[in-house]
Amino acid sequence: MHTKLYVDNLAATTTSNDLIDLFSAYGNVVEVNLPLARANVPRGFGSVTMVTPEGARSAIQALHGKERGTHALTVSKVCPHQEHVGASSGGGRSRGAA
C-alpha cells in the first residue's frame, strides 16, 4: 500500500526531480505533487508518495527537521482527512452564509 507524505518549507527553487532524488534514498517514489503559485513558482509545500510504509517512515525519520538550504523541512504522513482539505468549492465559507 502506498504512503503519501506531506513536505513543507521547500525552497522556491525546488523541483519535482529534487524531491524524487531526495526521497528515493529511502524507498521507491511513486508520485510527487508540487503545487505552483500563479507565477508558476512552487508554493513551498508538496507531497511525495512512497511505495512502502517502511520507506515513508525512513524518509520521515531522516528528513523531518533536516536543513535544505536555509529551510528546515517538515515531513509527515498525510492522514486521510488531510487529502481532502481545500477540496470544497465554498472557499472556506458555509453554503448559504451571507
Kindly list the characteristics that best describe this protein:
single chain; 98 residues; alpha+beta; Alpha-Beta Plaits; four-stranded antiparallel sheet; two-stranded antiparallel ribbon; 2 helices; 20% helix; globular; disordered C terminus
Which secondary structure elements does this structure contain, and how are they paired or packed?
Blueprint: E1 3-8, H1 16-24, E2 29-33, E3 45-50, H2 53-63, E4 67-68, E5 71-72, E6 74-77
Antiparallel strand pairs: 1-3, 1-6, 2-3, 4-5
Q: Level of helix content?
A: 10-25%
CATH topology of the domain at 3-67: Alpha-Beta Plaits
Q: Rg, please?
A: 15 Å
What is the end-to-end distance? 43 Å
What does this structure look like?
The protein has 98 residues and is α+β, with helices and mostly antiparallel strands. The chain has a domain at 3-67: RRM (RNA recognition motif) domain (Alpha-Beta Plaits). It contains 2 helices and 6 strands. The strands form 2 sheets. The chain has a 4-stranded antiparallel sheet with strand order 2-3-1-6. A hairpin with a 2-residue loop joins strand 4 (67-68) and strand 5. The model is unreliable at 84-98 (pLDDT under 50).
Summarize the model shown.
20% of the residues lie in helices and 26% in strands. The protein is of the alpha+beta class.
